[in-house]
Amino acid sequence: MFDLKTLRRFVSDYRQYQDLRHRLKASADRVRSLAKHAITLMRQDKYHDAEQLLAEAERVLKSVHTLMKRQPLLATEGFFREALEEYAEAKAYHSFLTGERLTIPLFIPLDTDEALGGVCDFTGELVRKAMSIADEEHLKEIESYVRMTQRVVDELSHVSFSGKLREKYDDLERNLVKLERIVYEVRMARGATLSSE
Fold first, then answer.
1. Crossing angle (nearest 10°) for helices 112-132 and 163-196
2. Domain membership of residue 182 as a residue range
3. CATH code assigned at 162
4. Most CB within 10 Å of its CB: which of 46, 58, 116, 144?
5. CA neighbor of 133 nearest in space, from 197, 193, 88, 185
6. Both 141 and 85 in a single domain?
7. Selection from 110, 92, 104, 99 nearest residue 175 by Cα
8. Does the pTM exceed 0.70?
């Protein structure tokens, strides 16, 4: 005989999950927004302001930790994983620009895919920054971006990625080419300037 009591329990469980999911979505959107804004501030060399936003993102993620304890399946939601990847990108970018050690609090459920995706993506930020400062005065700084990106490529080139990470790795290699091109163009402009004097 069909048991309506069991069906009602399933419906109740589903409603509870959807309520927690809705709360998680709001938090994930907040984390993503904070991380993106922090990246924008770092492009403008406003590191202190960016650090405050990253600290706020960590507070939001800490509050989400209690939701995860109640319903561990929430950690697999795509929108949450994407927010974590954006956070990882911002942290990697910050670590590179400030020279500080990259640390992720233990309560943040960052898995390998999001961490690697964030690292690959942060090299795109190096390209953006290099484009905005592409002149002889900043050549050494841009060359440091090339060296870092080359190191990341070297580390990851031994891994056989698939799916989304394969696309991220391909973007990483394209970022290296773009940075090398920027360095080349700055050097060529310097040579053109010297020859015209």
1. 20
2. 111-197
3. 1.20.58.200
4. 116
5. 185
6. no
7. 92
8. yes
Structure tokens that stand for 76 in this block: 């697999």
In a domain, 104, yes or no: no
Q: What are the tens digits of pLDDT across the range 122-173?
A: 999 999 999 999 999 999 999 999 999 999 999 999 999 999 999 999 999 9
Report CA Rg, the chain. Answer: 21
CB environment 35-61: b (16+ within 10 A), e (fewer): bebbbbbbbeeeeeebbebbebbbebb
What does DSSP assign to residue 135?
A: S
- The helix/strand count (H/E) of the chain reads as 6, 0
Q: For residue 197, give the DSSP letter.
A: -
What DSSP letter does each residue of 48-114 carry, written as one string?
HHHHHHHHHHHHHHHHHHHHHHH-GGGGG-HHHHHHHHHHHHHHHHHHHHH-PPP---TTS---HHH
Six token digits for residue 150: 């080359």
- At CA 61, angle to CA 15 and CA 28, rounded to 5? 55
In the chain, the amino acid numbered 34 is: L
